[in-house]
Design a protein that fits this description.
Length: 580
């Protein structure tokens, strides 16, 4: 009979077989944490816990899907039949929970989820309204800075004033006005039925604190498992404590040396302080690295030794194998660096390493600009990850905005986007039409569309027919009808319109499997699929190509040969990271 723990090393077996309360697994890079965690899930289910009562929280849906699929594969090989493990990111699980309990939490049934760009636009509107009386020429924080201040205050539980002093000290005399902007931002979202990413977690916390709903939500799960725990923030730790208030069975996996999201308010101290947050916790280690040779691990261990705090986890290779010592190439300038990398890439290819098994890693996307020119000059095909995502393509956001309006007619941000696609309609005319809709007035959502004739009258004649087509499609709440209504606008607004319209097929297909169109928009906002360029740029399937990726996007991936560029003081790590 198949052993559920077959193929695991001793450390991984200990993780999978652990039977007790809170467990912290300190897993170094490349040590098979996915294998260990998915095996633990399989073992828990095989021991009689229904799969749907196991919650797996990750930071990407891809990671959740991979772990769930691996655990089910192990169970199937062992002859176990089971349901499906509940898995997803913190935000996607929060979104599902809020949809189910919207009324209890005082949320509109069709609430919209704002992606960071749309949230920044809302912040921009309230910033202009609240700070309009400041003296001319007075420097005020940009919308992105204000959104960062607000988000950090929420995620860390820190007063806005302290956050301002920490990340925008030049604006310390504006603490009170900035606080007023944040309050206005909250109020505007509430009036319009809008939730940003932070709101999803805040309302999930509200649900877990609720006397009626909270215990029911927490009791849904017998086990909670969390991946990449070094990347959690204070609010997420509080959510986990509420989920495990009456049951100690929680497993977290992480590595403080891999904490790379401090700019999102994550804090590696949470994995260091796990035993304080979850009393009577146990700790296990994964130290055998299957991804790199010992020479590379020796270099990584030496770098980790310089960390000011954290666990001293020494990574080791499973066996001694011939390996090349990592090389440091000193380049005079960027052009020299680009030439050197291209020559190294071609040399590896001649030695039998395909381009697809090579990667160039950069800290910031723009660091590869010169290299891309040199690659193009030499005819070396490449794809780039870490730049534009699918959701960020304008035409995709256009259709998603119409989806949001269908479920939430008060979504001012979505209206503003769609109206400006109409011929001869710019920001000013769009704002007048939105004002006529009375979005911020009290009343039912249906009353918004009853005021549509007033909004239509604010639009120029040339825009009225396509505007009416969109309004009729909104009333149907059908994805295909909305695509057909939006198609003429997209054709007129963008180059390569047919390619862009084809990009909308996945959205229409996704809408067929969900109860609300706003769910499609929310799913793509919470974790958009990756893309290179504007949805077009991946070489033909039968070609070989080099990968260029940011370090963040490369996390968890592996290649046979890796080239890291701009490895100089101030770039890796950045000066900003060293000032915290």
């Amino acid at each position: 009979m198949y052993d559920l723990l077959e193929g695991l090393n001793e450390e991984q077996r200990a993780v999978a077989a652990f039977d007790g309360g809170p467990l912290r697994v300190l897993a170094g890079a490349g040590t098979g944490k996915t294998t260990a965690l998915s095996s633990r899930v399989a073992r828990i289910v095989a021991d009689g816990i229904p799969a749907e009562r196991v919650l797996l929280l990750t930071f990407t849906r891809r990671a959740a899907r991979q772990m769930v699929e691996r655990s089910h594969a192990r169970l199937a090989r062992a002859g176990h039949r089971s349901g499906r493990v509940s898995g997803g990111t913190f935000h996607s699980v929060a979104h599902r929970t809020l949809r189910q309990h919207a009324a209890r939490l005082g949320l509109p049934e069709g609430f919209s989820v704002l992606d960071p760009a749309d949230a920044a636009d809302v912040m921009d509107v309230v910033r202009d309204e609240v700070l309009k009386d400041l003296p001319n020429g007075r420097r005020i924080p940009r919308k992105s800075t204000l959104l960062d201040i607000y988000s950090r205050a929420v995620d860390t539980g820190t007063p806005v004033g302290e956050v301002v002093i920490a990340i925008a000290p030049w604006a310390s005399d504006l603490v009170e006005p900035i606080g007023a902007v944040c309050k206005a931002y909250i109020a505007r979202k509430r009036r319009l039925g809008l939730l940003d990413f932070d709101d999803l977690l805040l309302h999930w916390r509200q649900a877990l604190r609720d006397d009626l709903v909270g215990r029911s939500l927490a009791s849904m799960y017998d086990h909670v498992l969390v991946d990449e725990y070094q990347d959690v923030n204070s609010l997420q730790v509080e959510l986990l404590q509420l989920l495990r208030k009456h049951d100690p069975r929680i497993t977290v996996v992480g590595d403080d040396a891999q904490a790379i999201y401090s700019f999102r308010a994550s804090d590696p101290r949470h994995i260091l302080e796990f035993e304080s947050d979850f009393p009577d916790a146990s700790t296990l280690h994964l130290t055998v690295n299957y991804r790199s040779t010992q020479n590379i691990l020796d270099m990584a261990n030496a770098i980790a030794d310089d960390a000011p705090s954290g666990f001293s986890t020494r990574l080791r290779a499973p066996a001694v194998t011939p390996a090349t010592t990592p090389q440091l190439l000193r380049c005079a300038d960027e052009d020299h660096q680009s030439v050197a990398v291209c020559e190294q890439v071609l040399a590896h290819r001649e030695a039998g390493v395909p381009l697809q098994q090579q990667a160039v890693l950069v800290r910031a996307a723009h660091h590869s600009d010169r290299l891309e020119i040199e690659l193009g000059r030499r005819g070396i095909p490449f794809v780039k990850y870490g730049g534009l995502r699918y959701l960020e393509a304008a035409h995709v956001k256009d259709l998603l905005a119409s989806f949001r309006i269908a479920d939430n007619p008060r979504d001012e941000v979505a209206w503003f986007r769609v109206l400006q696609l109409l011929p001869a309609v710019g920001p000013a005319k769009a704002k007048r039409a939105i004002a006529a809709l009375g979005l911020t007035a009290d009343g039912e959502d249906a009353e918004v569309m009853l005021r549509w004739p007033l909004a239509l009258a604010e639009l120029p004649n040339v825009a009225q027919e396509p505007a009416e087509a969109v309004a009729r499609a909104v009333g149907t709440k059908q994805a295909e009808a909305l695509r057909q209504a939006m198609a003429p606008l997209i054709r007129a607004a963008y180059d390569n319109p047919e390619e862009r319209l084809a990009d909308l097929d996945p959205l229409v297909e996704a809408a067929a499997g969900v109860p609300r169109l706003s769910d499609v928009a929310a799913d793509h906002a919470l974790e958009p699929p990756r893309s290179t360029g504007d949805l077009a740029g991946t070489p033909a399937i039968d070609e070989d190509w080099l990968v260029i990726s940011t370090l963040h996007s490369a996390k968890g991936l592996e290649w046979d040969a890796v080239h890291i560029i701009h490895a100089a003081d101030g770039n890796i790590p950045s000066d900003m990271a060293l000032t915290d």
